[in-house]
## 1
Amino acid sequence: MQKRSEDGDFEKNRAEIMSNKKAAGRILSFLGILGILLFGLSRASVLMNRSVHPLFNYATSGIFAEEKESIDVLTIGDSDVYSGLIPAKLWELSGITSFSWGEPAQRPPETYSYLKKIYQEQNPQVVFIDVNHLFRDEKLSDNLDSITRAAIEKPFPVVLYHRKLDSFQNFLAQDYTITKGYLYRDDAKKPKMKKNHFKETGKITAIHPITRWYLERSVELCRKNGSSVVLLYIPTYKEWTYSNHNAVMELGSELGLPVLDLNLEMQEEIDWGTDTADYGYHLNYSGAQKVTDRIAKYLEDNYDLEDHRGDPAYQRWQKDSEAFRGEVEKEILEKERREKERQMQGA
């Protein structure tokens, strides 16, 4: 009886082990299929993040289609960057090569991750880090979420680009872009203006320690690669406050970095009635031209960057600049045509 019981226990244990192995095998198979699916979707999402329309092809992947170590100036940050600085115009003004790297709602952990990738191909002399994204993650949970997102995006960029998965026509687009990361917008939508918006205050917005740590890592990475770093605040009426400005000035002083807050410096130049595409969140083409003029002057006054205009090695930049201006002119004419049609239909 005892032996029969032992044999029964053995068979039962053996069956449990086999069942566990089958379950483990199913889990591994599922994870393998999920990984393949995510890899495929990620590749597709990167391709569809581009655009077949030259003016709207602002994908950050365009920087990797440029000649290696050919970018003089990099601007990196969130959507303010791809809305606020026009590399084609900067070339036109000064012969400086540049790229506007911006992702929607970009966070400091992502900035650091992107910079590591960029430095594998480019070695910009000047890096503008836009500071608007320093104020997104106010709590520990927000920062942990951003760190997780930055880690997942690296192998599975579909996390970032999932909103573009229905843009199948963009499979035909190229990584190479004449906008060099800039997104053309011509709408003009005025924000609700506040009487004391630019009123000075002594208050200082708190920057979360994790956010600051990632910024410091980004700055250290730039310096290690020989780049000069500037903390840049691109005009954004909705998201700028004087207490944010004070925080950036304090941070720049502590890190030994110059600060260029164009919200204050361009108060008289930016017209929020005509220079914003979406009620004060982002600049339109009119506002971006003004910012690019200001950046060109800042670079001329503070850095000895080479003017590549006329250099045969940079002929492609001249062609791209001319192509960009031609596309803008076509877009303006098309908008005028549509407006005339609407007026005629409403008559």
## 2
Amino acid sequence: MPDICPKCGQPRELCVCGEIAKEQQKVRIQVTKRHFGKMVTLITGFDKSVDIEGIAKEMRKKLACGGTVKNGVIELQGNQKDRAKELLKKIGYNEALLEG
């Protein structure tokens, strides 16, 4: 039996819940200074249905930086604000709802 989405009841192959969630989410991008003057980019506001780990992995690869996911927040090493915003737009997030 195929995997069924709990939200819409459609098979996973036909489910569009993730795409709709991307277009309606208000994602916030901010840069903070950590220990010893190191800059860290924080990306918050993701819905529970979105694969945050997958997005973080792709961002680390495309931006050529280190990072992690903690408590639903993507942390990227360095000031990646502008590059992260462009990458989120390419993934499918609404530009008008990207704050930062």
## 3
Amino acid sequence: MRRFLCALVALAPPSLWGIPEIKLMSPTDHQVVQRHSRAEGRLTISGVRKDARGTQLEFRLLDAQGQGAWRQLDTGSEDAFSGIITAPSGGWYRLEARLTQDGKAVAETSVAHVGIGEVFLVAGQSNSANHGEEKQTVKSGLVASFDGQAWQVAHDPQRGASGKGGSFLPPLGDALASKFGVPIGFIPIGIGATSVREWLPAGVTFPSPPTILSRVTKRPDGSWESNGAAFGTLVSRLKHFGPRGFRAVLWHQGESDANQKDPTRTLPGSLYQDHLGRIIRDSRQAAGWEAPWFVAQVSYHVPGDEASEDIRAAQAALWKAGLALAGPDSDALKGDLRERGGKGVHFSGPGLRRHAAGWAEKITPWLGQQLGQK
């Protein structure tokens, strides 16, 4: 009897199976996929289809001129599907997918903005996040950010990082998009006021606590340890994107370790170098690949307390050791480039744009070398 019923279902016309449906899970709108060469990247197309018996799954990527040919995506007969395609660098593309039967489309869906370009993870403290004096906006239309759940145009404030103000990411993204001609994606996870000690893996110990204690714990022997929450977020994002799923980490942090009001909370440069080196090495191991890190020189507080040579030397030592690449010298940004008419630690609107230019000056020649460009 069961075989008889199955035979009837197989012979039944499509109209009795239900209306075919298709839904895309990946990519999502404004997603930027890291290209693996100057010319192309690998894009995962995945989703679910329903009542799709006897249909073919097809897709096409449409460029700005609306050009793009339909291609078949061979994913078997399961309701859930996933396939990887190679696509040319660029965007935004419009991805269209459909189910066809007897040469006719019976279900369709699309994603309006898909980019094959460059992706950067941005970590550290407030000046890596949204604590600037003036919110910045994307001018090129080619910059997006990912908050752990969804992609969106990278207008400030950046979801995924702390703060509600401005960041350097929109102008940096615009500069890189203009130079390299591809969409730029950011993964912001900066947390205001954090010490490098708070970014250590859970259980790593140190002799003295940072100024803020919410992410560290005192041990019975009087030493302190990180609770690992910030490092956990870092690793979570690294694993989400997978090996070589982004270009580099941009690290901007140091103010909360330099010249603290309570001198016992100031971190010696030797320990700063030690701790940040540990974060870089352990995060690479967790990610499963040697992700490049750019480390900025960061120790400025206010006029009169404009640099810690000890912390700056520690940051530079990581470059010299080959563990990190040189980021910009943000301590050099003073006067009206800082908030409240030059009285604060965070950047003003002009300061954010100058900060972005400093990052672009460091990233551009290095990225050009990676891509074989001059």
## 4
Amino acid sequence: MTLRILRSAIEDLAEGRIFYDLQQIGIGGMFFDSLFSDIESLAPKAGIHPLHYGFHRALATRFPYAIYYKVVDTDVLVYRILDCRRDPRNIAAELTDVL
């Protein structure tokens, strides 16, 4: 499977990195590395995660984030990487805006 991270997901990663670096220098880098590792792990097991709002949702291992993706033919398309602490209505709206 080919893994593709869409611009919206890259922007989410950048926003998360800034947030965590503001908490403590260096945590943003840990966030970035951890989430990229979680994203890379999707390729061999894409599609096994439960559906939420029309996307598969994989929970990050070290941070309270969810990776929303779709499997299209042989591609895994990562659409958004969102903070799970947000109001679910806001998450649904952000995912609707992507489509």
